[in-house]
Amino acid sequence: MGAAVSNWRLARAVSRTGQLGVVSGVAINTVLIRRLQDGDPEGHVRRAMEHFPDPAYARSVLARFFAPGGRASTQPYSYCGVPSARASLDSQRLGVLGAFVEVWLAKEGHNGEVGLNVLEKLQLSNLPVLYGALLAGVDYVLAGAGVPRDLPLALDRLAQHASAECRVALEADAAAGEPVWVGFSPDECFPTLARTELRRPRFLGIVATASLAEYLLRHATASIEGFVVEGPTAGGHNAPPRGALRLSASGEPIYAERDLPDAAAFRRLGLPFWLAGSWGTPEGLRRALELGASGVQAGTVFALCAESGLDPALRAALVDKWLRHASAERVFTDPFASPTHFPFKVAPLAGSLSDEHVYAARQRVCDLGYLRAVVRGADGQLIYRCPAEPLEDFVRKGGAAQDAQGRKCLCNALLANVGLPQVRADGSLESPLLTAGDGIAQLREWIELEDGELRAAEVVRRLLAPSD
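Request: output the structure for the sequence above.
Response:
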């Protein structure tokens, strides 16, 4: 769920019920240093850092980023480097530490299992994140938003402290040439950790179709333990419809029957699978089990829980809009919002980038770069570009001006969602952009919200309650 919405608090709350709590690995190095710059008021980040197996490095990060009492609200956050195929050791080390902290805190104080979710699209920064999660004892790794065929083998190698690499997906207009790989060497980043015993987590591919699952099983060179099957009603990024893109009268991608999960095809694969995308209800869970699934993945309802990482004011606005009142608005599947070219579910909310006036007022900037695409230029050099960056920069790098229309900077918006917005030179803050699954409107049918906040343990209890 975005960057730090499914954070350690939420994952721990779910795991303590006996279910699988999952933390997000998206932008985790930036999440780490911004929490430290905000003073880590409850001391949780610093407590986890005390357990990092290279204590000297953890102390150096504290000395560099920790601000006792927190930075001034007008002071911009410091950065930790932009991902690239040859990322600095400093950026990689922060990715390792950030993932370690998140998983360690999620696993603290109980024996439940914890997973880590990464986006295949973030190939340039995923490997250090995986290694940090392994150091903290992560039990599962889930990966989607692309074709994660290299990650199972990477987990095998990282569990042995060996170097790992992943192919970088180049944009379709990239010049021909040898494949581009991004690598990560644990020995280069943390040579003192080679004797730490690690356990290889189970790998779950997040897919939209059985054909993609079959492709992964054929081409992955290490074990895959199951699949999360996301339909087109799931929050966040959706797989595009198969075939030529067609839009409805409202401007949304049109999905057909063949875009829906085929439970029978997944049963034939013989591996466990979980259904996602409007299945996270008591009735959805019952139907999923009847179809042979091992369970469901629920996202939106947990994002509305008190333990989620959403900024409390934003979470309260969403709860008020969809749980306390029946909003006439609905989630919009925007085919152009995301710079990744994947459709993105936008939950409309005043003051967010879903408001065209707010979007138009924002000055384009690309200073985090997690979602930048990689292109090989005619001279063979790699070019990093994003359709949400300043238009003149995007065009100069070979991008088409029309492809930049309507694109929104998800990197900055997702961090604003969790209360970590960057401060701009004029004193303004980056605006959020909320997402939710289509099923958010149906949550009122089984969530009996009282005056108190929604809690993750209560959601699990209601999901598992026997039907009348």
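The two ends are 31 Å apart (CA to CA).
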